[in-house]
Amino acid sequence: MSDVFQGEAMERAAVVGHAPRTPRAAAIAGILFALLLTAALVLVRVAVPADSGDTGAWLTDPSRRRLVALALHLVPFAGIALLWFIWSPGVNEGKS
Asked: Quick check: is 8 in a domain?
């Protein structure tokens, strides 16, 4: 009975033709999302001091403001990678 299921899976892979690419694209998008979001969080953590008493100093320092701006610019790209990660496995779900 397992031979029947294996044969059907091989037929489906032959018909679709690009079945291995979808999981690879999802994996790449997931890794890209993790890297971009981690980079953004690390940049914010480096730019903002841990001491909450020194609130205004990091706002007036141009290099720290640039780090925060860079982190905020990375977040949309991380969101796109997350959407791609969510979307790509479901692309071939309806095809048979």
From this structure: no
pLDDT digits (tens, 9 = 90+) for 2-26: 555 555 555 555 555 555 567 788 8
Residue 83 lies in a domain: yes
Query: Which H, E and C letters describe the chain, residue by residue?
Result: CHHHHHHHHHHHHHHHCCCCHHHHHHHHHHHHHHHHHHHHHHHHHHHCCCCCCCCCHHHHCHHHHHHHHHHHHHHHHHHHHHHHHHHHHHCCCCCC
73-94 pLDDT per residue, tens: 999 999 999 988 888 777 656 5
14 domain-assigned:
no
